[in-house]
Amino acid sequence: MRYLEKLNLICNSSNQFIYLSLKLLFFSIISLNFLIGGCEKEDENKVQEKELSRLEKEAEKNVISKVKTQNNYFLKHKSFFKPPDEPATRYGSYPPIFGTQRCYRYYTETDTKVFSQTTIDAVYSYAVQDDCGGMFGFEIRWYVGAVFAVRMNGDKQLKMISIVCQNKERYGRVPSKPEYINSVVKCPPNTTQVLPI
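Now predict its structure.
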């Protein structure tokens, strides 16, 4: 009988040891999972930031291209052109203006102002955030480019000025139009100039 009591005591001790070991193993696995999961999240954030920067650079390049095209068109034809509406779809403008594009929709507006001796024709090209094929929870910078054709002295002189601006932050509304005031072009509030063209 004593032998059975000792055996029971040993079994109970072994069971307690196994139970404690399993409990420790379980908490170690959970802790390790949180640690690894946190590192993966940091890597995901870096990957997402890199993708957002790539999309923004692509949109900037496309708006610059549109501005240059408008500038060249005006020099040749003495007027700007407004491309057909570029409607939004689930995957950007359709048909895609710049090959495969995601997350941006492009559109154009024209404007003419007449002063006493000066006529200012302007065209504005926008790149605004569109549906990113189901990727939600982030915002990207919006862009606006402008070309001003300033005709002075009854069309005897022509001055062309271009500018591209981007939102300072990755949120907000569509930027308002760049302005031409007293021979100076400037970006709207809450935007920065990408570069003069």
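The chain has a mean pLDDT of 75.
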